[in-house]
Every structure is written in structure tokens, then in C-alpha cells.
Amino acid sequence: MIAAGLILLAVGALDLARSRLTGVRLGIVLVLLGGALLPLAAWAGAAAWWFAAVAAAAGWAATTSTREPTRWGLWPAAVLGLVTAVAVALIGVREGQGPLERIWPIESPLGVVSLDLAVALVGSLVFLVESGNVIVRASLRGGVVAAAATNALRGGRLIGPLERILVFALTLTGAFTLLAAVLAAKGIVRFPEISRDDEGGDRAEYFLVGSLVSWVVALAAAFLVWWGSAA
Higher model confidence: residue 103 or residue 83? Predict the structure, then answer.
């Protein structure tokens, strides 16, 4: 499970960095980040998996963009989902979790949280912030449509991450009634803007496709964590 968590953490941190930095500064930040996290991964007995996570992040960077859709579409997200699912299937919660295990597990209102589970939770949350936006953007047809709809439906880049984190947290805690209320509230709030859509239906497409893909990403992350913790 720690392998999947590290992969999501590496990809999510990469997207957060490259959404704000470019060129040499981006390279410096990524090198420093990778170097800082390597000792922590080694302390958790997962140094080899950190190198695998860095390789997965490099492949993600080569096939996706934080600014516009690429010719690869949703294939990188599908491959990443498959890789993390295989990682969870092959490596659940480990019995030995390295030297760091001595201060773990910790107690929480939902029960005992192992080190592997904590890494998976942190990795999922970091991934949902900006990498979720990358996946949603890749699902929309044509950059012109996406740009026009984005101007009409402002705040999507901020609402999306918050929404995914809420869906992720409410799903893991089993608060399905509250989850349904949150999803319904988004449709109600956006309805006045969507009702003023033009003949092309760009706003409706942007809202429906973007929202559904965003929810699927959050639910998939929640399922991955639940599956790994239950294995």
C-alpha cells in the first residue's frame, strides 16, 4: 500500500510544483523535494518504492500538462490507476514498516492508522489537489471549449480540489447522506450559470463532464485507500 501512496504523493507534488514554477526553478524544487523525501521513505523501509514513484512521476510529467490537454488524453490517468491498483493488490499494509514503525501506529477517531495507511492518505490528498485538475482538463473536448467554459464558470480550479477532498473524506468516513447533499448543492449553485448556456452547450458540458470526472477521481482514491486498509 505504501507503494501506491508514494506514487500518488510523487505525482501530486510534481503537479503542484509545475503548476506554479517553470524552467530551472521547477527543476531545483523537484530535486530538493525528491532528496528530502528519500530519507523519509528509507526510514519507512520503502526507499526502493520511492524510486519507483519518481519513475512514475517522470512518466506522468512526459504525458500530461497542468495548462492544457495533451494528445495522450486520459491514458496517463488510466495507466496510473492501473499501476496503483496493482501496487495495492500486491503490497497491502506491510507487517514490518521500517524503523519509523516504532512511533506507529497512531490512534484516530476512526481507529488505528498504520504508517502505510497514513502515507496512502497523504499521497491521495496531495494528488487530488492539482493532479485531479489535470485529469479533468484532459477529459474535456478541445482547449477552446474548455477555455470559454472556464471563463463562464469561474472558480472551478479552486472548487474542484475542495470538492474532491470533501468527496474523498466523506466517502472514507461513510457519510454518504452528507456526500449526496454536497454533490446536489453544487448543481443547485451552478444552475443559474448553466441555464444561461448558449446553443453550443459548452457550459453544461464543462460542468457535467468535469464534475463527473472529478467525482470519479475522488471516489477512486477513496476506494484505493479503503481497499488497501482492508487487505
Answer: 83
Q: How far is CA 32 from CA 127, 129, 139, 194, in A?
A: 19, 21, 32, 44
34's CB contacts (< 8 A; 6+ apart) are: 10, 54
The backbone torsions φ and ψ at residue 111, rounded to the nearest 5 degrees and listed phi first, read 120, -165
pTM over 0.85: yes
In tens, the pLDDT along 176-215 reads 999 998 888 877 776 666 666 565 556 666 778 888 899 9
Q: CA-CA distance, 122 to 179, in Å (whole number)?
A: 21
For the chain, what is the domain count? 1
Contact 208, 191 (CB under 8 A): no
Strand ranges (E), 50-167: 106-108, 111-113
Grid cell, residue 215, equals 467525482
